[in-house]
Amino acid sequence: MRTFLSILLTVFSVISLNAQEQWDLQRCINYAFDNNVSVMQTALGVNRSEVGLKQGKLGLLPNLNTGATYGFNFGQRIDPFTNQFASERVATSNLFLSSSLDVFNGFSKRNDVKSRAYNLEASKYDLESIKNDISLQVCLSYLQILQNKESLSVAKNQVKLTQQQVDRMKKLVDVGQMPRGNLFDLESQLAQERLNEVTAENAVNLAILSLTQLLQLEPNEAQNFDIVKPNLTDEGVELLSNSAEDIYLKAKSMMPQVQAAEARQTSAEYALSSSQGQLYPSLQLSGSIGSGYSELNEVQIGEGENIGQVPIGEVLTQGNPLVVSLQPQTVFSDSDFETKGFGDQLEDNFNQNLTLTLSIPIFNGWSAKANVERAKINQVDADLSYRQITNQLRFDIEQAYADAKAAMNTYLASEQAVKALEESFKYAEVRYEQEVINAVDFNTTKTQYTNAQVDKLRAKYDFVFRTKILDFYLGNPITL
Questions:
Q1: Which of 420, 421, 409, 391 is nearest to 462 (CA)?
Q2: How far separated are the first and last CA of the chain, in Å rounded?
Q3: Are 326 and 310 in contact (CB under 8 A)?
Q4: Are the beta carbons of 189 and 171 closer than 8 angstroms?
Q5: Taking the CA atoms of the chain, what radius of gyration do you get in angstroms?
Q6: What is the pTM of this model?
Q7: What is the DSSP string of 109-147?
Q8: What is the pLDDT of residues 309-344, one digit of tens each?
Q9: Residue 338: in which H helix or E strand, if any?
């Protein structure tokens, strides 16, 4: 029964391992680029800058607007299309098309377009910068998993060795060759090493969880997540042949955060020129066409009613009686008129307008001058930001260089320590089997050897990560 359960557990373990999908570092980085919220938010900043640049460019073109009105007028007024008094409700309509063009505005709009263009360039560099940060974070998490897995292998190997010693000691105790206290010491050591194994296994799971959270994987994807173990043969010792100053000078010319700061400096300069243009006179050309319709605009359709001769005055001549002047008169009613057709009125009332306007700013609540002052402050702020970013880059590289050298020295020292303690452990193992030393002394030597192995792993992956940072500052992609 025990054999059957062992086989069954082994089969299930194999199936579970096969179900896990292994990701290499590049796949993790690419997935983070596509799904990380910080990256997506920074990409939206690029989109906003693109919209702003497009708006600025189109602002150089003439505007064009059209519209129509239709309404009713009540009370006494002069109809604008018939120039007649109206005292009743009158329906009117108006159609228009207008356009205007800034002939000269102190080059304010042109400089604004250039400022927006450099803002877009800075936004693109910001996106590259956040991607670099994500790449480093993913690389660190990836290496942490590798380190913890190797630490787990060391812990499992120690448990295996101690279990063999416990089994051997049981046999010796059973035949009376060794005291039972030695067995208790070994069993206590085995329990501690199994605890170390569980701790190491938990560290692996937590490191995997940290990376899946950084990648923002869905729960079903994170459940089967695992990584590929690369061959870390090149630890990048040759990178330290470069000085920190050499690395800084090269990084300064290609790091996106520096390029973004430079672009914002140029953008601030054009923004200042744009605001200064508002202090100059401006010249605008505008034109419009339009037409309208009114219910009072009527045309005659009837002949009216002839009411005969109607006196219109009297003429007094010398020595003659008064002569009455008569004239035929026709009386018209409402049925003799109708409102002129809509199309005819639009044709009759069609009008054009062309205007050239010169505007000279004298006093506008200090708004233009305030814009200039704000632009000057923004320019100084952009210069300070550039200085801060380059200084921070120098500090980061100097720190990374010092950390890499320290990590290399630690790694080389830990290698020597492991080699020395490995020989000491082998010698202690032989002496323990020959009963020259007791279990306590042997376990002390074995613990020292185990700790040295763990320290070497820690130093190894720390050195790998530090050299990857230096390689990154030299403009090389992060790979393992």
A1: 409
A2: 46
A3: yes
A4: no
A5: 46
A6: 0.79
A7: HHHHHHHHHHHHHHHHHHHHHHHHHHHHHHHHHHHHHHH
A8: 777 777 666 666 666 677 778 777 777 778 888 888
A9: strand 337-339
